[in-house]
Every structure is written in structure tokens, then in C-alpha cells.
């Protein structure tokens, strides 16, 4: 019943080369097995389910852009308390006199209502001149003047907040201009609750809101092999997706599975001292342990210059938001063995994402990862050529340092000894061989949807068939930039 959508581009790095971008037909063309429920039935979505030892790490993501309703007189802008700007920007003369407009004028109670519908709660917040970032009990919320991004994991009911978003937007003179929803296929689909029983059910639920907003008449797509990791995308695009206020024309997401167990152990709460002194409060202990986990895993090095808001969970788990000027980065980690997962998403405007991707993968050393990129055409042009999403599979390999095996250590020591006997200096050379793990791209799918939204999705797996390659570690260190700095952002 599904058909490959027109204008799509599909590449498989292993034979056979099958089309893997599928356009999902409207509700009228399929039969949904799950019973439908009213979108406004209650304020407490779904049932509470007991934790069963595994957790659905991959997030559902909802991005909604708003525009001003013609003829509507907006409420006066709300003055910012400069002390609430978490990145210290209030000290800059240019930052003084900040006024919140649009969605940033919503009260905390309104944001709580949105999260309640999705079955999550706000835990903490950081803000700068351009956006507010909230760490949630399940993932993150980002609020711009005219755009909201909500990511939730586990068995949350993300789409049940759509009607609330429509209502709150109209109250402040805004209407939906663009809506996008996406997620990877679930690892534990049977645990999900309405309306997330299937992608068809999710689309049907979105269509049920058309009486509230005609702009929700969009289309659904599937990218990637349906027999393996794949990506669902729904887009309702009635206008240009981005504006100066939103200032986000690309979103990169790295979803890593079966992360290294030594790394995963860093995100168990009981691995850290519960109290360092008798006067330390519980909140202070949580903040301390959260930052200790951040530094122990090297997460802070992935977002240099940004204001970081980390959160450690009991008994295990971790979330982090980081804001830098107009951009956000967010990371969520589920360390349970058997379902371990880590994700990194950012809307940073980079011309080359390869160093950042390599650093993220290096930090967690997963057995496989899925990478998605959603951008408008202008964003793709600014990026130029990206070898990870274009070209052959051989040009899309990613090599990162890995833990040396006993054989590799022995070989490295032997090489260093031989080098020392020739040069007479080993300890001071600062150069030695280190094993590198190689990830190969096994498939790639891309499509252009609606007017100008381009979606790309690829799967990478650890090449375990070959021995780790030994390379010069000093050379690797010299050419490895650590993420995005303030200076590089200003020059982009």
C-alpha cells in the first residue's frame, strides 16, 4: 500500500540496493488496529507502567514553528531579569534590556501543562538572550520566541500536547506555521501508549487536530531499511520553515546503541559519593554528581563555551542541555546493559560536522549508531560537501581511538621501545601508536519533503571483522578539534 515517494534519493552501501524512503498514505487509505481516543479527554495522558528493567532510549521529537496571527495585538513584552540569564550574558552591554516575546512569554504553569500532557515534568532551566532550555524528567524542552522543540523518551505521550500548544499559541496571538515530528523505530514498541502505538496511529492522531488547525495536514515518510533501524518523519509545511527568530536551519542527531560498558558505568548514581560533607543538601549533591558525570565522560568537552545544565538520575541515567548563542545541544543517556543508549542532538550551524561526530562517537564507543540530519536547502548549501552523507561507503567511515587490547598494548610498547632504541628518546617524544575502531556506513537514505525540508538518515556499525588499526596518537590529537567554540561560532 505504501509507495516510494517522488523525488526521493536512496542509497544502500550493501547489496541489494532497495528503495528505503517510503511515503505513508493518509488515514483514509489504511486500517488502524488500535482504538482511537479523543485528544482532549484528560490532563493525565496514559497509564503509569512499572519499570521492567529496560528503557526506550530513542526520543520522539516535536518541533513547532509559530507565526503572528494577522490583526492580533500581542501583549507587551516581558522584561527579563538579567540575573536569570544563565550564560552570564547580562554583563554584556548588548544584552541589557532583553524583552521576552512570543512563546517565551508563556508562564511556567503553561509549560507545565504542555509537559503534563506528554507525561513528563520540568526539572531545571537555563536561559540566554535567544532561548530557554529545560531539562525534563524524560529529555528536553527548548523555547524560542516563535518555535518550540520538545523531545521525550521512554513511554511518554508527546503528541498529546499538540492541542495545548495550539490553545496557548492563540492566547498570545500565534498560530502554527510549521510542524515536524520524527522518531526512530522503537526498540520496545509494545510498551508505548496511545497515540504512539504505531506511526500510522501517530499520524492519524495529528490529523484529528485539523479542526483546530488546518496546517496540520501534512505527510509522513519512512527513511531507512524497514527490517532494521529506520526513521519516521512527519512534516506539515505551509510556509518557509525557518526565520530570523528561529535561526535554526539544520538539526543533527546521533543515536548510539550498545555503548561501551565502562562508559555506561559512569552514569550510575551509586558510583559517586552520596554526601561529601554533612551540610550538603540533596539538591547540592544532585548538582555535584551531575557535573562529575559530565566531566568523567568528557561531555563538557563536546560543547566548549556553552552554558551546560546536566542532570544525573537515580538509579541511573543522565540528561544535559547546553546553550550557546542561538543554538542548543542536548544529550540523553540510558546506561542499562541490554538496552544502553546515548543520543546527542544539536542545531549548531557548522560547515563541517565530521569532527563533532567523531568526538561524540569516540566518547561513547557504541557498537552501532544512527545519524539523522534535517535541514532546509539553504542549510545544506552552507554545509557544502559532507562526506558522511554523500559519496561511497568507504568515504563515510569513521575511525575513533578505542580501548587498547592486551595485544595492542604489547605491540604499542614494542613499537615505542624500538623507536626509542633508534632515537634515544621515547618518554619525551609524545608520540605513540593507539588502536582505532572503525565504523562503516551500511546504508543511507535521503528525501526532500514539502517545500524545502531535506532529510538524511544513515546507519553505521562497528567493523568488528578487522583488528583495530594502529595510528600515531599525536597526529590524531593535533587534528582533532573539540566541538564548537565561541570563536568558531562567530566566524561561521
Task: Give the SSE layout.
Blueprint: E1 3-4, E2 9-12, E3 21-24, E4 60-68, E5 78-79, E6 99-100, H1 108-118, E7 122-127, E8 132-136, E9 139-143, E10 147-152, H2 162-171, E11 174-184, H3 199-207, E12 219-223, E13 231-237, E14 250-257, H4 261-264, H5 282-296, E15 307-312, E16 318-324, E17 327-334, E18 341-346, H6 354-364, E19 368-376, H7 377-383, E20 398-401, H8 406-423, E21 433-449, E22 453-462, E23 469-472, H9 473-478, H10 486-491
Antiparallel strand pairs: 1-3, 2-21, 3-12, 4-10, 4-11, 5-6, 7-8, 8-9, 9-10, 11-13, 12-13, 14-18, 14-19, 15-16, 16-17, 17-18, 19-22, 20-21, 21-22, 21-23
Helix pairs in contact: 1-2
Summarize the structure.
This protein has 492 residues and is α+β, with helices and mostly antiparallel strands.
Features:
single chain; alpha+beta; 10 helices; disordered N terminus; disordered C terminus
Account of the 3D structure:
The chain has 492 residues and is α+β, with helices and mostly antiparallel strands. 20% of the residues lie in helices and 30% in strands. Strands 2, 14, 15, 16, 17, 18, 19, 20, 21, 22 and 23 form an 11-stranded antiparallel sheet that branches. It has a 10-stranded antiparallel sheet with strand order 1-3-12-13-11-4-10-9-8-7, with helices on one face. Strands 5-6 form a two-stranded antiparallel sheet.
Amino acid at each position: 500500500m505504501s509507495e516510494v515517494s517522488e523525488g526521493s534519493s536512496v542509497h544502500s552501501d550493501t547489496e541489494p540496493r532497495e528503495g528505503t524512503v517510503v511515503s505513508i498514505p493518509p488515514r483514509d487509505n489504511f486500517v488502524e488496529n488500535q482504538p482511537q481516543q479523543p485528544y482532549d479527554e484528560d490532563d493525565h495522558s496514559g497509564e503509569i507502567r512499572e519499570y521492567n528493567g529496560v528503557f526506550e532510549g530513542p526520543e520522539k521529537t516535536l518541533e513547532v514553528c509559530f507565526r503572528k496571527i494577522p490583526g492580533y495585538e500581542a501583549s507587551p513584552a516581558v522584561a527579563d531579569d538579567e540575573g536569570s540569564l544563565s550564560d552570564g550574558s547580562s554583563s554584556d552591554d548588548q544584552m541589557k534590556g532583553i524583552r521576552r516575546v512570543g512563546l517565551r512569554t508563556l508562564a511556567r504553569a503553561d509549560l507545565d501543562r504542555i509537559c503534563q500532557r506528554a507525561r513528563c515534568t520540568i526539572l531545571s532551566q537555563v536561559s540566554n538572550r535567544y532561548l530557554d532550555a529545560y531539562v525534563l524528567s524524560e529529555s528536553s524542552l527548548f523555547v524560542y520566541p516563535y518555535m518550540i522543540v520538545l523531545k521525550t523518551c521512554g513511554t511518554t505521550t508527546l503528541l498529546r500536547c499538540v492541542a495545548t500548544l495550539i490553545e496557548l499559541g492563540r492566547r498570545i496571538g500565534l498560530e502554527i506555521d510549521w510542524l515536524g515530528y520524527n522518531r526512530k523505530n522503537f526498540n520496545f514498541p509494545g510498551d508505548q501508549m496511545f497515540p504512539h502505538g504505531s506511526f500510522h496511529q501517530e499520524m492519524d492522531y495529528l490529523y484529528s487536530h485539523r479542526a483546530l488547525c488546518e496546517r496540520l495536514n501534512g505527510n509522513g515518510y519512512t527513511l531507512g531499511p524497514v527490517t532494521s533501524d529506520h526513521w519516521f518523519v512527519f512534516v506539515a509545511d505551509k510556509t518557509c520553515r525557518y526565520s530570523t527568530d528561529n535561526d535554526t536551519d539544520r538539526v543533527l542527531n546521533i543515536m548510539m546503541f550498545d555503548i561501551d560498558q565502562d562508559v555506561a558505568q559512569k552514569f550510575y548514581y551509586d558510583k559517586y559519593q552520596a554526601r561529601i560533607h554533612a551540610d550538603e543538601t540533596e539538591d547540592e549533591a544532585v548538582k555535584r554528581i551531575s557535573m562529575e558525570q559530565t566531566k568523567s565522560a568528557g561531555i563538557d568537552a563536546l560543547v566548549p563555551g556553552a552554558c551546560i545544565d546536566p542532570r544525573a538520575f537515580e538509579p541511573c541515567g543522565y540528561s544535559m542541555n547546553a546553550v550557546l548563542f542561538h543554538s542548543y545541544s542536548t544529550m540523553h543517556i540510558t546506561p542499562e546493559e541490554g538496552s544502553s543508549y546515548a543520543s546527542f542532538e544539536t542545531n549548531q550551524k557548522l560547515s563541517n560536522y565530521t569532527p563533532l561526530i567523531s568526538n561524540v562517537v569516540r566518547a561513547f564507543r557504541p557498537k552501532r549508531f544512527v545519524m539523522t540530519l534535517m535541514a532546509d536547502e539553504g542549510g545544506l548549501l552552507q554545509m557544502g560537501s559532507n562526506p558522511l552523507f554523500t559519496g561511497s561507503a568507504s568515504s563515510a567511515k569513521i575511525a575513533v581511538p578505542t580501548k587498547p587490547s592486551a595485544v595492542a598494548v604489547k605491540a604499542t610498547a614494542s613499537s615505542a621501545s624500538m623507536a626509542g632504541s633508534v632515537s634515544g628518546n621515547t618518554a619525551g617524544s609524545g608520540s605513540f601508536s593507539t588502536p582505532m575502531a572503525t565504523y562503516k556506513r551500511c546504508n543511507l537514505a535521503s528525501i526532500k519533503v514539502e517545500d524545502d525540508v531535506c532529510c538524511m538518515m544513515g546507519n553505521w556499525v562497528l567493523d568488528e571483522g578487522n583488528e583495530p588499526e594502529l595510528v600515531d596518537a599525536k597526529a590524531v590529537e593535533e587534528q582533532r578539534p573539540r566541538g564548537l567554540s565561541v570563536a568558531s561560532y562567530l566566524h561561521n
